[in-house]
Design a protein that fits this description.
The longest helix has 35 residues. The protein is 50% helix and 15% strand. The protein has 404 residues and is of the alpha+beta class.
C-alpha cells in the first residue's frame, strides 16, 4: 500500500477489506506457499497448456509433495488441515487456472474422500497414501451421458455374480478420466427392484472392460483432462465395493466436499481477472491519460473489487462454519451459486476493460472466463443450486414439480 493510500485511509487494491486480518499465521503461511508455487510452476506455462489442450500429469507428484492432495483429510499420508486452509489453497490454485484446482479438488474431494469416509481399512491403507503422494491419480464417475443434474436416474448397473460384481455403463465429463489409475464409479444395484441401492466401486483403470476416452474440441477447462468412461462387463471382487454407504448419500456427500472447494476457488479466478484489469487500466493510455482515470473504467474496477472482496468474505465465513461442524449443504449451495456467478461477471467485465487484448492468452482473462463457464455448470448447475436454496427457504421440493 502506498504512503498516500495509508494517509487517506484508503484500502489496498489487492486486499481492500484487509481480509488478511481474518486469517491466523498458519493460514497465511499456507496460502502464501501455494501462491508462490502457482506463480512459479503454473502461471508461466498454463497459457500454453490451455492452448494445446493438455495438462502435465507429472504435476500430480508436485501437488503431492506440497501436501495439497486430500489435504483436508486426516491420516493415511494426508495433511489434515482446516477447511479454511484447504479453501485458501483452492483460491490460489484457481487464480492460476481452474484446471489446477480441478485436479486437486477431484483427487481429494471426489476420489480420496469417498475412500476415507466409506471405505474399509484395507481400502484406505491400499489407496490413500499413494493418492496423497500423487503416485496414484483418481477420478470420480457419477455423471452419465443422460444423467447430469439427476444422478438418481443413472443407468450404470452392478450385478452380483457369485462373490463378484459385474459393472456395465458409461460415465461422462469425468475430470482426470484418461490419466487416472483408479476410478471411483457409482452404480445402481441391479438386484434391487426399488432402484434405491447405489454402490461405489474402486475400479483400477487397467481392469479388463474399462475404457476412458478424452472429450475433444473443448473450449473451456482446456488445461484439464476430461473424459468419457465406458465399463463393459467389468468384473470386480466384493472387496472393491465401498462398504460404508449404499445410497445416493455417498456420491452426494462427495459433491458437497468438492463444491466447498469451488466456492473458494472461483474467487481466485475472479481475483486474477480483477488484478489483470487493474494493472492494464493503469498502464493503457488513451486520449493522453491512463484509462484508469476515466469514470466508466473506475466504476468497472470498483464493481470487480467489491465482488471479489465480498465473495472472499462469504467463503471465509462458510469455511469457519465448516471447521466448527456447522455448515449445511444448502449453505454450500449458497456459496457455489453466488461466488461462481459473481466470478464469471468479474471475468466478463475484466475482458471488456482489456478490450481486444482481453481475448488473447497473453493475459489470463479470456482463459479464466472460458473456464468459469464450465465451473458455472459443473458440481451442480446454477439452476439446481437455486432450487436447493428455494427448498431450504420454503420447505417445498420443486425439483419434480409439474409445469403450471
Amino acid at each position: 500500500m502506498s504512503t498516500q493510500q495509508k494517509q487517506f485511509g484508503t484500502g489496498d487494491p489487492h486486499d481492500f477489506l484487509d481480509l488478511d486480518r481474518l486469517l491466523d499465521d498458519e493460514e497465511r503461511l499456507g496460502r502464501d506457499t501455494v501462491r508462490r508455487f502457482v506463480a512459479d510452476r503454473i502461471v508461466p506455462d498454463v497459457a500454453t497448456w490451455f492452448e494445446e489442450g493438455a495438462f502435465p500429469v507429472e504435476m500430480a507428484k508436485e501437488f503431492g509433495a506440497m501436501g495439497l492432495l486430500g489435504m483436508h483429510l486426516e491420516g493415511y499420508g494426508c495433511s489434515g488441515v482446516s477447511a479454511v486452509a484447504y479453501g485458501l489453497a483452492c483460491t490460489e490454485l484457481e487464480a492460476g487456472d481452474s484446471g489446477a484446482r480441478s485436479f486437486v479438488s477431484v483427487q481429494g474431494s471426489l476420489a480420496m474422500f469417498p475412500i476415507w469416509a466409506f471405505g474399509s481399512e484395507e481400502q484406505k491403507q491400499q489407496w490413500l497414501p499413494a493418492m496423497a503422494a500423487g503416485e496414484v491419480i483418481g477420478c470420480f464417475g457419477l455423471t452419465e451421458p443422460d444423467s447430469g443434474s439427476d444422478p438418481g436416474s443413472m443407468r450404470t448397473t452392478a450385478r452380483r455374480d457369485g462373490d463378484d460384481w459385474i459393472v456395465n455403463g458409461a460415465k461422462m465429463w469425468i475430470t482426470n478420466g484418461s490419466v487416472a489409475n483408479l476410478a471411483v464409479v457409482w452404480a445402481r444395484d441391479a438386484g434391487d427392484e426399488t432402484g434405491r441401492t447405489i454402490h461405489g466401486f474402486l475400479v483400477p483403470t487397467d481392469t479388463p472392460g474399462f475404457e476412458a476416452h478424452d472429450i475433444p474440441r473443448k473450449l473451456s477447462l482446456r488445461a484439464s483432462v476430461t473424459s468419457e468412461l465406458v465399463l463393459t462387463d467389468v468384473r470386480l471382487p466384493d472387496s472393491a465395493r465401498l462398504p460404508g454407504v449404499s445410497t445416493m448419500r455417498g456420491p452426494l456427500s462427495c459433491l458437497n466436499e468438492a463444491r466447498f472447494g469451488i466456492l473458494f476457488g472461483a474467487m481466485g479466478a475472479a481475483r486474477a481477472c480483477y488484478e489483470a484489469a487493474l494493472d492494464y487500466a493503469g498502464a493503457r493510455t488513451q486520449f493522453g491519460t491512463p484509462i484508469a482515470a476515466f469514470q466508466l473504467t473506475q466504476r468497472k474496477l470498483v464493481e470487480m473489487m467489491v465482488r471479489v472482496n465480498r465473495g472472499m468474505l462469504l467463503a471465509l465465513h462458510l469455511g469457519r462454519l465448516k471447521d466448527a461442524g456447522q455448515l449445511s449443504s444448502a449453505q454450500v449451495s449458497f456459496g457455489k451459486l453466488d461466488n461462481v456467478r459473481e466470478a464469471l461477471w468479474v471475468a466478463r467485465e475484466a475482458r471488456g476493460v482489456l478490450g481486444a487484448n482481453g481475448i488473447t492468452l497473453e493475459y489470463p482473462v479470456i482463459r479464466h472466463m472460458n473456464n468459469l463457464e464450465s465451473v458455472f455448470t459443473y458440481e451442480g448447475t446454477n439452476e439446481i443450486h437455486t432450487l436447493v436454496l428455494g427448498q431450504a427457504i420454503t420447505g417445498i421440493n420443486s425439483f419434480n414439480a409439474p409445469a403450471s
